[in-house]
Model the fold of this input.
Amino acid sequence: MADTRSGPGRLLIAIYGIFAIAATSRSAVQIATRFDQAPAAYLLSATAAVVYLLATITLAIGNQTSRRVAFLSCTVELAGVLVVGAISLLQPSWFPDATVWSNFGSGYVFIPLVLPVLGLWWLRKTQRHEPINPAQP
Done:
């Protein structure tokens, strides 16, 4: 049993932190300078930024409550990458400008597709298992 902040978890938290900064910066500039050109894409980038920030913080905290929030963040992130990725390929006109999740994160070397899978795997690997007491009903 490992802590979410130990070993490979440190690298995972660092990568999430980098993506939180990158997505926040990108979406802030996009929303501030050209929101009218692709509002849906830019709001999706801002949503991704919030998800990355939440995952970074909750993985770094590592207590039971934050682990639940981290699990939810990684799940939402994976769903977002899959849904937005598929829609951006099927209806490219809906995304006149790229988001972090469009084309399954191809603009970011597919890290947005792999990152939530690694996050969910790490949360499972570091899960604390309570001992089973057969004397209790």
